[in-house]
Amino acid sequence: MSKVFILTRVLLKNGNLGFSPSGRSGKRKIKTSLFLGLMILAFLPLALSFGFFTANSYEALAAIGQEGLVMALALSLISFTVFFLGIFYVNGVFYFSQDIESLLPLPLKPAEILGAKLAVTLIFEYLSQLVFLLPVLIAFGFKSGGGILYFLYGLIVFLVFPLIPLILATLINMVVMTFTNLTKNKDRFRIVSGIIALFIAVGLNMFIQKFTGATTNPQELQRIIMEGNNSFANLVAGIFPSTRFAVLALINRASWVGLVNLIFLLLITLGFLGIFFLLGQRLYFRGVVGISEAASRRKRLSEEEFSRSTRQNSGIKSYTLKELRILFRTPTYFLNCILMNFLWPLFLIIPIMTQPDRGDFLQLVGSFISDESRTGIVLAGAFVLTVFVSATNNITSTSISREGRNFFVLKYLPMSYEKQI
Questions:
Q1: d(Cα 376, Cα 188) in Å, to the nearest integer?
Q2: For residue 251, which of 224, 263, 233 has the smallest C-alpha distance?
Q3: pLDDT for 152 beyond 90
């Protein structure tokens, strides 16, 4: 176990989180501290808004005995967020990091490498939970009068809860990436593998939403809500595995019901960890061996083809084509930068298309859009949303860092920095 902690620390220091200092210089420590402070200031308003929303919702729902619905919705949202982000985090940490082939020859057991990689990915998820889940737990605890026992349960749920959706995302990636070594063009196959893994995740979410929507009609929902006793929270929490146990443990912390559900949550998590290590040792190394190899294609060119391929272009055009090739040919950038442009409309459509009454909803939206007095508002809103989502794409944030370790080469190119930018 000590090797797992040591390896996790080494992986973090090598830059998996992007802000871990690799040295002891004063300047580096100052930059790291400033970066952390900036991140806290950036996400603090969002975290506070979740806390205030939880506090206000608790008061409204407590009047009908459904205050647990706040916690159920929060944990369900966190489950899907961890699962979805885990698809990308696992690809980056387990497969596309630069340390993989350096670790394979070391005297480390497969379980130790898998454990350290999982720990690093889990830290990513904890950072997300600090913004989305921690404010909800704190606000719910104070509004419900939760004592030391509630916050103890909350700490355990915070640490354990993201493991199951993260392990599910990891196993999906492993199953898909295991077949990487069966093809010559590994980068292309990794792109296809990432797309398949992503659509499996989206398809699973669609199935869950469609199943829960089909099994609960509006009359049944009304009956459950009016029943009180947090009955609606039980329904919502049943959408994702382990969510129900976490919710029931928190809202029933004063009785043996809460303790039993917390024990069930821990046992299920241990079971998933066992499955992870059992399958991981069989699948992970089959997909990771030789991952840095690349396929090359040999083709005899005619004189005309050679002349066409070596034709001189302007600096701006050549540099732009180089950037586009990096985006489309590198699996990490293609999945995170290119593919996401086409997926975010899908994420908006999925919740609508999986509802049993989607026809009435679409008819209502259609009548709203067709109203001439609202056409301008609809077009303006769609334009603003599209521009905002597109501008927040990773193409922008990675525009000056996609070169990676070869960034120093930019200094030697016969092109000014202004033209490169």
A1: 43
A2: 233
A3: yes
- Residue 120 has a CB neighbour count (10 Å cut-off) of 23
Q: Which residue matches tokens 């299920």? A: 268
What average pLDDT does range 159-167 have in this prediction?
91
- Helix or strand run (H / E) with residue 235: helix 231-237
pLDDT of residue 193: 66
pLDDT band with cut points at 50, 70 and 90 for residue 270: very high
Q: What is the 8-class DSSP label of residue 94?
A: I
Neighbour tally for 262: CB within 10 Å: 22
**Of 124, 122, 137, nearest in space to 74 by CA:** 137
- Summarize the confidence of residues 363-375 as an average pLDDT: 76
Q: Which two tokens stand for residue 291?
A: 């991952």
Six token digits for residue 417: 């920095």
Give 268: exposed, middle or buried? Use CB within 10 Å, 0-12, 13-18, 19+: middle
Distance, CA of 133 to CA of 302 (rounded, Å): 62
CA distance 233 to 251: 10
| Cβ–Cβ under 8 Å, residues 70 and 54 | yes
Cα Rg of the chain (Å, integer): 25
The pTM of the full predicted model, rounded to 2 decimals, is: 0.66
Dist CA 227 CA 224 (whole Å): 5
Half-sphere exposure of 194 (CA within 13 A, CB side): 28
- DSSP letter at 66? -
pLDDT of residue 224: 47
At residue 122 the predicted structure's pLDDT band, cuts being 50, 70 and 90, is: very high
pLDDT for the residue 16: 47
Q: What is the DSSP string of 163-228?
A: HHHHHHHHHHHHHHHGGGGGSS-HHHHHHHHHHHHHHHHHHHHHHHHHHHHHS--HHHHHHHHHH-
Q: For the chain, how far is it from start to end, CA to CA, in angstroms? A: 47
In the chain, % helix, strand, coil (3-state, to 5) comes to 80, 0, 20
Asked if the model's pLDDT at residue 155 lies above 80, the reply is: yes
Cα separation, 145 vs 142, in Å, equals 5
